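seq:
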Amino acid sequence: MPASLLPRLARAAAVALPLLAMACRSDDAAKLKLAPSVDLDRMMGGWYIVANIPNWFENDLVGLYDVYSRRPDGDIQEDFYTHQNSFDTPQKHYTVHDWVTPGTNNAGWRVQIFWPLNFPFLILYVDPDYRTVLFGYPDRSLGWIFSRTPTIDDASYAAALERFRGLGYDTTKFRKIVELPEQIGKPGFGGAAGFKEPAPP
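struct:
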């Protein structure tokens, strides 16, 4: 294992272990209304993560990009690419094992960042052309907007937030993710290179 991964994995373990009980639950898909059905073949390929509810793993990252492909065993391989803090830093690559929860019409996924822990990753909406996907987490503490393009227009972003709101999310928690250098410092963007909320008085 590369030494550079050890600090991040240590942080991952520190945060993930208290969530072990939730991660092992079998009823997480019932907490949120999932997309009626998902065509896994159309989900394959590259996705930009254009917005999220800021979280411990992605907070200091820019240029987040996921590529989904089929594993030989029929599960899903997730290749995650990103830069830490700045586009000037080397691109990092992580390979993740995902799989579908039976009985969810391919909308309930589980993600194993490292063994033995795996977490629910729920598809709440996918547009008919498979250009935008909304992912969620059972307790609504996490949410993501994926797009085939590095940016989405304001109307599409507002529509995505409205879908999250309809599912009980607090959409004020969402921030856009810096996918392009010119987005750095613009209002509404989170992450290390993005907009910083002013400290309370």
